[in-house]
Amino acid sequence: MKKVHVYVTLKEGVLDPQGSAVARSLHALGYDEVQEVSVGKWIVVEVEEGPNLEARVTEMCEKLLCNPVIEDYSFSVEEAVSS
Amino acid sequence: MKAAVLVFPGSNCDHDMYYALEKGIGADVEFVRHTEKSVAEYDAIFIPGGFSYGDYLRSGAIARFAPVMESVVEEAEKGKPVLGVCNGFQVLLEAGLLPGAMKRNKDLKFICRQVELRVEENSSLFTQDYQAGETIKVPVAHGDGNYYCDDETLASLKENGQIVFTYEDDVNGSRAGIAGIRNQAGNVLGMMPHPERAVEELLGSKDGLALFESMYKHWRESRVVTT
After folding, report:
1. E strands of chain A, at which residues?
2. Chain B neighbors of A10, CB-CB under 8 A
3. Which domains does chain A carry?
């Protein structure tokens, strides 16, 4: 079993209304050093090990987990603790 | 006109759509569940608003893979009229039947109120009963209605006259004020505002009725030609 961590973020250049609201709020709290905030998703997928793991995960991202029109994704594979 | 109103888990404007079609234009309406395999027997397909599958992941992202959608895509490609309203529009975007994507509203609030729309074109089967440039009043009710597409897509939407409705005021941050677009062939329309909630004066406006009447007229005329 492997644990795949998928990170989905808005593409660069696509205005992120959630990110800018969080940035404004951080500024209001006095964190003037904050330049930009982006808000995304972190999806954890537990999968059985197989020969095409990376290719299959890429496919999952492109088909369902991420909308390529507005989002980018990246993922990392972690050995899951055996159950 | 045999009309199919799709029902996903979480659809909540399906009955409004049914009502508008039945009372508004006397259509023979049926609910079609997400598990059905075919919509081929219907003359037009309506994807209603709501929160299909709880809007999990992204609005419309999971509904787009529901069993019924394969047939919807097939029929759309054959030229059958398909109208997606609100969540229905989001489903059409996710399914790739229309270009672009939806983001959260720019002020992050769920907006539920009457808005003014400009009818940008009246050459499609959905808008022939409107005047081009006319202002109509139709309610919106959405949290993810901030339409986005890249520059290239926007230019091609403009060039092909695919922008059907725009907001008179900036409601949600949508690019070019886009409230509704159609595909290049002209048989698929997606819009965030709810024409099915504006079919009687009692509802605050009946400006949405002409959209259904346009579709009905198109259906009747296409029958005359084929029979």
Report:
1. 2-10, 41-47, 71-79
2. 103
3. 2-79 (3.30.1280.10)
Closest residue in chain A to residue B64, using alpha carbons only: A64
Pair of tokens at residue A51: 């020969």
A15 contacts on B by Cβ (under 8 Å): 103, 106, 173
**For each successive 10 residues of chain B (227 residues), what is the average pLDDT?**
97 98 97 97 98 95 97 97 98 98 94 98 96 97 97 97 98 97 98 98 96 97 72
- Interface predicted TM-score (ipTM) of this complex, two decimals: 0.83
What is the 3-state composition of chain B as percent helix, strand, coil, each rounded to the nearest 5?
Answer: 35, 25, 40
Alpha-carbon torsion angle B84, B90, B94, B98, nearest 10: 50
Q: Do A15 and B108 touch (CB under 8 A)?
A: no
**Residue B141 CA to chain centroid, in angstroms?**
13
Residues forming a β-bridge with B142: B111
Backbone angles phi, psi at B41, to 5 degrees: -80, -5
For residue A17, give the nearest of B57, B62, B106 by CB distance: B106
Given a contact cutoff of 8 angstroms between Cβ atoms, the answer to whether B133 and B123 are in contact is: no
CA distance B99 to chain A (A): 9
The label of the residue with tokens 């989001």 reads: B90
Chain B CB contacts of A69 under 8 Å are 93, 99-101, 148-150
Q: Are strands B178-182 and B188-191 parallel, antiparallel or unpaired?
A: antiparallel
* Domain B2-226, CATH number (from 3.40.50.300, 3.40.710.10, 2.40.10.270, 3.40.50.880): 3.40.50.880
**Could you report the per-residue pLDDT of A7-18, keeping only the tens digit for each?**
999 998 898 988
Q: Across the strands, what pairs with B148?
A: B101
Q: Amino acid identity, residue A46?
A: E
Nearest to B148 among A64, A65, A70 (CB): A70
Round to whole Å and give the CA distance between B175 and B165: 12
